[in-house]
Design a protein that fits this description.
Length: about 525
């Protein structure tokens, strides 16, 4: 009997807690299976986050490396962590109400991670702190930095080209050199390089170094190197195209060149980093033969309390979601605009401007044009109700102009403000240049303003729009929301801004009444 006990791979004190942890983790994944499936789907469809498939095996391997240290610990539940689990449940609920994948998926992974110290105790979690933290790399998040990375890449490329003696004309992230035109698009942002480098670099730093400052220093290098490498890659590709007369590095091959260059840079980074490697100090575990034979432990009262509390703290957001779904309104909203919108602005042919924003699957939408004297203004409304992950107002797929639009190109962006409902609110603003599809009398440039209407509340901030929507849904007011887009020819900045202010000042009450009437059609 003593021999069998020593040969058992799992110490007796760990058997029941491990079974309890397995049940808890399986229960969380079952309750939030739609979130988990959505996360795996993103891994499968997006090359940027394909590394998510290897995160769990790496976490399990990292935990297995700590098995001797863990065997010397006695797992004890930490019921006070149920408060954190309840907070994570609220985080998931708010993210689900406004259909934000990154929030719900981050909350799910955090629940799985926090469940470990809740069931097994803080000392156990402290021993495997890095594997637990590494699990967050499974969350497909990080594309929010793409616009900034694109701007930095364009800035560096143009600066380097000019330093090389090549004249450059720039509009936004598009630029023209004597040999042709170039654009910095999403694929040029380097976000894939950055996420891949940070994931592998973090693992490398943990396994290679022992001191905290070396690990943190290498992780910072793993962030900086791919960003700078992407700048150099973009500059080299443009130079290759320019010097070759646009015969190389102008098609799919420029992506191949980019990955080869990135691979060389990252391998060099790891090679240099390995020169400062620190040997790992292995913990000495007590001999199994010296441990007394202990019977299979019974489930204690604190463990029962913890398990029941876990079930409640993890399950309550699902219950609230099901209750809120009973208030879902299936009626299709109606957008009815008074004709004309105001006495001083008359209806015009919207084709005379030739522009429409890109909003996917709105519940209702309209695109109108108005004229007063020689001033033309367009107005677009996209109304959303009963939003979900496939159709929602605030989404990366809803844009004032889509990337590589064959008709319009974004040349500048900024912000402005106007008075709505008696108070000043901010507007998002972009300037567009027509590429093709011009009709007689249509403008070649447009200035476009955008703002959100969330159940009567105006804001141009994506995060505030999501927050307002979540709060209103919790209050039982539904998720009725809309985007208001106003656009005018950009012959001169002053004339476009005056047209916007004049149109909005004369028609804001009618616009607000139109949206409120749509919300009332339930």
């Amino acid at each position: 009997m003593n021999r069998n006990s020593r040969s058992s791979p799992i110490p007796p004190a760990w058997r029941v807690p491990l079974v309890a942890l397995a049940v808890v983790l399986a229960g969380i994944l079952l309750l939030y299976r739609q979130t988990a499936i959505g996360m795996v789907t993103i891994w499968y469809k997006s090359e940027t986050f394909a590394h998510g498939f290897v995160v769990l095996p790496i976490v399990l391997w990292l935990v297995w490396r700590k098995r001797e240290e863990l065997a010397g610990l006695a797992p004890r539940p930490s019921p006070w962590l149920l408060v954190i689990l309840a907070s994570l449940g609220l985080m998931w609920l708010l993210g689900d109400l406004v259909a934000v994948n990154s929030v719900t998926q981050l909350a799910l992974v955090a629940m799985l991670v926090v469940a470990v110290p809740t069931v097994l105790g803080i000392p156990v979690a402290r021993t495997i702190a890095f594997p637990l933290a590494f699990a967050f790399f499974a969350v497909p998040i990080g594309e929010f930095v793409m616009p900034q990375l694109m701007d930095w890449t364009a800035d560096f490329t143009i600066l380097a080209l000019r330093a090389s003696g090549i004249p450059v004309f720039r509009e936004g992230n598009n630029f023209v050199i004597p040999s042709g035109s170039w654009s910095v698009v999403e694929a040029c942002s380097g976000v894939r390089y950055l996420i891949a480098s940070l994931t592998v670099g973090t693992l490398f730093a943990y396994l290679t170094y022992q001191s905290t400052w070396r690990r943190v220093s290498f992780m910072l290098v793993a962030i900086l190197v791919p960003v700078v490498a992407n700048w150099l890659r973009a500059y080299m590709i443009v130079m290759l195209g320019h010097l070759s007369g646009n015969t190389i590095a102008v098609g799919v091959d420029h992506l191949i060149y980019g990955w080869i260059f990135f691979g060389i840079v990252i391998l060099l980074m790891f090679f240099i980093g390995a020169r400062w490697a620190e040997p790992e100090h292995m913990a000495v575990a007590p001999s199994r033969g010296s441990l007394p034979v202990t019977p299979l432990p019974k489930v204690s009262v604190p463990q029962w309390v913890t398990v029941l509390g876990l079930a409640l703290m993890v399950g309550w957001p699902i219950g609230v979601k099901l209750a809120l779904e009973q208030n879902v309104v299936s009626a299709v909203p109606k957008l009815t605009v008074r004709e004309p919108l105001s006495p001083t602005w008359q209806d015009a042919d919207v084709a005379s401007i030739g522009y429409a924003p890109h909003y996917e699957l709105p519940s209702a939408e309209l695109n109108r044009a108005y004229v007063r004297g020689d001033v033309r203004v367009g107005m677009y409304l996209a109304y959303y109700r009963d939003q979900d992950y496939t159709r929602k107002l605030v989404s990366s797929s809803n844009e004032l102009v889509i990337s590589r639009d064959p008709q319009w190109n974004k040349v500048q962006q900024g912000s402005g403000s106007a008075v709505l409902g008696g108070s000043a609110v901010g507007f998002r603003r972009i300037d567009l240049r027509r590429l093709s599809g011009a009709v007689a009398g249509a403008p070649d440039r447009l200035r476009v303003w955008q703002i959100y209407w969330i159940n009567g509340k105006w804001t141009s901030n994506d995060y505030l729009a999501k927050a307002y929507s979540a709060v209103y849904q919790l209050l039982g007011r539904g998720d009725d929301s809309a985007a208001l887009v106003i656009y005018a020819p950009l012959d001169r900045t002053e004339s476009a801004d005056r047209a916007f202010e004049s149109f909005l000042g004369a028609n804001q009450e009618s616009i607000d009444a139109t949206l409120r009437a749509a919300a009332a059609s339930r």
